[in-house]
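Marked as duplicate of an earlier ticket. Keeping the data here for the record.
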Amino acid sequence: MAALRERLAIPVLAFGGILMAVMQTVVVPLLPDLPRLTGASPGAVSWMVTATLLAGAVLTPVLGRAGDMYGKRRVLLMALGMMTVGSLMCALTSDIGVLIVARAMQGAAAAVVPLSISILRDELPPERTGSAVALMSSTVGIGAALGLPLAALVVQYANWHVMFWATTALGVVGLALAWWAVRESPVREPGRFDTLGALGLAAGLVCLLLAVSEGGTWGWTSPRIIGLFAACVAVLTLWWRQQLRTERPLVDMKLAARPRVALPHIAALLTGFAFYGNSLVTAQLVQAPTATGYGLGLSIVATGLCLLPGGVTMLLLSPVSARISAVRGPRVTLALGTAIIASGYVLRIADSRDLWMIILGATVCAIGTTFAYSALPTLILRAVPAGQTASANGVNVLMRTIGQAVCSAAVAAILVHHTSLVAGAPVPTLHGYLLAFAMAGTVALVACAAALSIPTDRASRETPRTGRPTGAARDEALEGA
């Protein structure tokens, strides 16, 4: 039985990562109908997405740090539990206030991936770590690609609450499997939890992401948006100083400032931006009316199916990305992945009228994302002590989230300024979409440059009492696998 649990630990953790991504995307097909279904305004309904984004950004580094201190399995189960309870609340109500709170609870699931990666680093032998981490990283894209068409099918043919009942059932299964198959990691970093640091980071991130998310709606020069950005700068500056003076900080800023940690974080932000542009723009482009001359007028179900090949490709190529990292190093894999993303956008710019070319370009971007996302956690694992892997990977996932939020705002700004009237309604022009592709491709190239700038030196780490190699010794073994 113990051997079976050990063999199933990787697929169980990957299932949790896919669930997390599915939970984030299932509400998208509902957004146009939710004002009618809930009796709320479109602005209030949009908070069902914003609340998940904000909660995920805030809780990911916090839960990562808690996992390093109090047990990664324990915190993982808590995150999965909050996700499942949030889904159950959505299934039981049509009240917009309760729905927003429930979606915020589901945001806790964003910590599942960094916690799982840290567990894999602690528990697996070096020869299995690379492929397992690559699979875990790719679950973000796999779940997003699967969640959209499946949710659209449920919404189209059944009551919208059925979708949340289904995700609740999946959440219960994932929670039970994780409780059964995943054992607690012995690697801990003792100390007192930095509550003040957690509150400061939460306040700063809420100001930043709220301003980025609502800037297009409230107006980028409005007093509220300017005030939020100013508050963000002030709060995060004070937080940075507090972290430097705290004995056991939430985020080790001295460690985070080292090039081997800081550059992967920068690359994560840029890659998150470049990755998100693909799915965001593609979904709008193929659903545009045929009267535009370029749109295909596809349904939300068909749109999800257009993105599905990319998700399947990410699943199939995650072992390949791990092999490249083992042979050439994760720095090369990251640079290769971001370069492939940029080439995918070249295809999108070359032809965004034919469906097969749209799917091909989107799939090439997904391939690049697979390589990049699999390399980022490996770079972090090699650069930080074993006792800080969950919190450091949590910060890396946070940077991806910020990149996605900024991408969403930037794409919206471009499309709003490049519109034409179709049947009396403003619709983005093809030129606007191509500009968005060019912007995302340029950001991917900047991410490639950041990847190539990451130092390749390795510092030795201590070996914990479990007898399992960590740090440089473990990484050397991983490269030789």
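See parent ticket for discussion. The radius of gyration is 21 Å.
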